Amino acid sequence: MTKGGSGRPRRGRRPGESKTRSAILVAARRLFADQGYDGASIRDIAAQAGVDPALVHHFYGNKEALFTAAMHLPNLPEQLGAALASDPAARAEGRLGELLVRTVVALWEDKALQRTAIGLLRSALTHERAAAMLRDFVRSAILARVADAVEAPDRDLRIALVASQVVGLLMTRYVLHVEPLASATGEEIAHAVGPTLQRYLSGQISM
Amino acid sequence: MTKGGSGRPRRGRRPGESKTRSAILVAARRLFADQGYDGASIRDIAAQAGVDPALVHHFYGNKEALFTAAMHLPNLPEQLGAALASDPAARAEGRLGELLVRTVVALWEDKALQRTAIGLLRSALTHERAAAMLRDFVRSAILARVADAVEAPDRDLRIALVASQVVGLLMTRYVLHVEPLASATGEEIAHAVGPTLQRYLSGQISM
DNA sequence: GTCTATATGATGATAGAC
DNA sequence: GTCTATCATCATATAGAC
């Protein structure tokens, strides 16, 4: 007689295994987004996920690893790339800047993405590892996707300028909640800051 | 015979009174700037100032009050206003945006100002009181000084857009150290982002 | 004004029972 | 997989001696 006894066969994933794991990740994303790396305690995260604090350590080892796992965005660069590639004419017609804002604002509607990005932003200012992750994210997501659209001489400066406006927009709109930017529609924002990004990408910026 | 004994008269401030007070403030500015509100401990601040931690409480009561005292910029709005008023022709000639960036970058050379602003930025993301102070600062410093230069309909949106680019610039250049923005000269930055601010102030931004 | 001593509580992490 | 119990460390804050 096999282990388990009565007639019910033991197929599929055993209960409670991956459910708590992902519950912890969701809670971690929310709390890292709300309070930043230092402010979010493992105890709070566990309580939010409805599990024991020791389980968090059991699954992820330590807080750093949990943060890395929670903030990891496996396919965001791909999503951004796909969105940008969806309108190939924009690049030639000088609408790349506007398309870029529109994409950023649209991707932001995804709650998981939003929490991850805010968590990174919030933590980057006080946690060096988070800052490194944010820099890498900006590099891979923005730089790699639009780099071939800008000319070589001041390419890095142009990308950095784009990043400065995008980061500032995310900060003021989604973190500091500066009005009326916070409650503006995506369309309004696209019209307002699109031309800025366009100029940074292909306009006159140096002296 | 008066208290104090020998010939030396007891005039002026007694030693050790305001010296440690201001030493604490300087240390607090530096540590709040480097580590944010939560990361900077009173112990660290006291150690940096070379005084006993209990003295910090004795002088300022609690951490909140110390933060408020350290981050208080009594005359920054005045400085900003004076710098903007120094070139009255700029407003009429459409160079207000460039003058604004130039002023921000120039004021930033003041180390005390720089530390205060970074401290506010770094703390604003995890500390609600710091966020409120930053919003007030942005309001009084930027809004009040250039509000009369922009037309009424979307005045608040225009100011918020200016704030978004300025905050993003400070974040990427001075906190995240994104290159080549971090090592660019003030002149380069003025040329690059000046037109952006000018357009936000007086250009076409809505649909 | 300055410091020692301490109250009080939260944190990340670990060992080990079930 | 789950939880209890606990360690070591850090924090803010206070009381009170000198």
Residue-averaged pLDDT of chain A = 86
Low-confidence stretches of chain A: 1-7
- CATH H-level superfamily of the largest domain in chain A: Tetracycline Repressor, domain 2
Assigned CATH architecture of the largest domain in chain A: Orthogonal Bundle
For the largest beta-sheet of chain A, the strand count, sense and barrel status come to:
none
Total helices of chain A: the number is 11
How far is the first residue's CA from the last residue's CA of chain A? 83 Å
Beta strand count of chain A? 0
Brief synopsis:
By secondary structure, chain A is mainly α.
Describe this structure in words.
The structure is a homodimer of 207-residue chains. With 207 residues, chain A is an all-alpha fold. Chain A folds into two domains: 18-71, Homeodomain-like (Arc Repressor Mutant, subunit A, Orthogonal Bundle); 76-202, Tetracycline Repressor, domain 2 (Orthogonal Bundle). Helix content of chain A is 70%, strand content 0%. Chain A has helices spanning 18-39, 42-49, 53-60, 63-71, 76-85, 88-92, 96-107, 111-124, 128-146, 155-175, 186-202. Chain A is elongated and about 55 Å long. At the A-B interface, helix 1, helix 8, helix 9, helix 10 and helix 11 of A face helix 1, helix 8, helix 9, helix 10 and helix 11 of B. Chain A binds a DNA duplex (18 and 18 nucleotides) through residues 14, 16-17, 20, 41-43, 51-55, 57-59, 62-63.
